[in-house]
Amino acid sequence: MTDDRYDAILARARAHALDYLHALPTRRVGSTASRDELIAAFRTPLAQDGESPESVIDLLAAQALRGATACNSPRYFGFVIGGATPVSLAADWLVSTWDQNAGIYVISPMVAVMEEVAGDWLLDLFDLPRESGVGFVTGCQMANLTCLAAARHGVLRRVGWDVEADGLQGAPRINVVASAESHITIDVALRYLGMGTKCVQRVESDAQGRMKPDKLRALLDTLEGPTIVCAQAGNVNTGAFDPLREIGEACNAKGAWLHVDGAFGLWARTSANARTRDLADGIELADSWATDAHKWLNVPYDSGVALVKSREDHRAAMTSSAAYLIQTQGAERDAVDWVPDFSRRARGVPVYANLRALGRAGVADLVDRLCARARQMAAGLAEEQGVQILNDVVLNQVLVRFGDDDEMTRRVVSGVQEDGTCWLSGTNWQGKAAMRISVSNWATSGEDAERSVAAIRAVWKKIRG
Known about the structure:
By secondary structure, the protein is of the alpha/beta class. The protein has 15 helices and eleven strands. Helix 11 (274-278) links the parallel strand 5 (257-261) and strand 6 (288-292). The longest helix has 35 residues, at 348-382. The radius of gyration is 23 Å and the shape is globular.
């Protein structure tokens, strides 16, 4: 006898999913429904006896085209958001089907091995120390937290303090140094770790948002005791990289732990273009690295990766144990030793699937194509009168200003969102309003870029009058 309760409902969900995916290339990118309209569609008294599974799935699917922003559209350029490749989406469906708790090896040997192999592949692709620890987390927020937890453990261990056992009360004070342009997730991680944000000493950055290494060296000369330096590979606005080799050498000379936030910039290491790879020159000198897979690798949300050179510091900062657990004592890998959470989705599986399907050349092509699309959009917009590109387009980020005026720039951003051809967001860069274009989707073609540029220029011309 077979259990056919899954058959009809999964077939229905598949049909709805395909309808949604097939509409992506042509549909309006932004959502159209208001909060009130969505509340009206979803809010109802919870029924005593429930509703049919089919009607629930139909309701969800019916609201998606009007209520969901098409973040996986090839013309979505907001924030830094990739779109799941077909193989990674299919792998993620299998992850839900298997419903594995990936916390320890004994629960799911298959997932543990896939994540171990995927971690090895990533270290090889990024050309980072192969002995490094790897943890699959929700995103770069938790990747930064994991790496900085390892850093906190490591720098205090060197001075004889066990922070996991004794906490921070009475511990030697840790110096934390970061760029003036560091991402907010660094600050949040420091809050979660009990070090706070007032401990951060900021280093001046240049016009592209790169940390000035001479200013860092001067600051390090004034510091004594445990020190953590946070650098950046890929500024969230400009895409610029801190001068990582100089920073790494300065940190190594002073015995400081260097952490690199490479949410999307770390993927420059996989490029076939020497100029792009050289942006991250010296990154291997760091002690830890954080990145996202749901950005440039284009796997489904949520998927971040924490990498730490010292496996001992990484494991000591994360591991937990209990009498009821069956934890490995051998070569098998327990994920709980490398990440903050225990019960967790097998998020390393789509990473494994996508890497295996793409191979080295496919990953390099993905990175290089999107860099080319960013340059294409920047060039197309720069041809228009009154349009200024504010950054050196070295990666996949483009900052645009219209009429050298804050209000006009914000109006263009709003007008483009309303038009619906593409979707992008605004930002504030060094005191000026700007449009921020992030090209992160595997499916974005030259035609998508051209069509989006035309729509942006048309909105600007209308506003300019």
